[in-house]
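pinging the channel bc i need a second pair of eyes. not urgent but kinda urgent?? the chain im working w is below, pasted from the shared doc
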Amino acid sequence: MASMNSPSRAEIIVRCLLGAVAWAGVLLQLILSLRMAASNGKTPIQGLVVYFGYFTLLTNLFIASICAAYWLRSGSSIGRWLQRPGVLGCATTAILLVGLAYHFLLREIWAPQGAQWLSDGVLHYVVPFLALLHW
């Protein structure tokens, strides 16, 4: 990993790609979760509770927030904390566990279609791979 003061061009590209993909996946799943809640007669708040109840979403949000902190070069305490190498290592480990657990334990129990298939692929495979590449 390049130093935080002078990231390589490749690191910047991977970080930007990782952040964009993570945010897209998280936002797509938010839309899908709110639609599903509405179609089941639930309130948006109930949809959000379910949405934030998944470790997959929380971990992808963690990765997306780390990338956003790099983009914004935030001088705030939370921005500095998100940019620490130990935090990146923790987030990378968590997202890799998400990908591995999904692949080996959960992928066979349902067959998502359409946008849900895309969201699942991004959140469980693409983001973990890019996070490992970034780390």
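so The chain has six helices and no strands. and The radius of gyration is 16 Å. — does that match what u expected or am i reading it wrong
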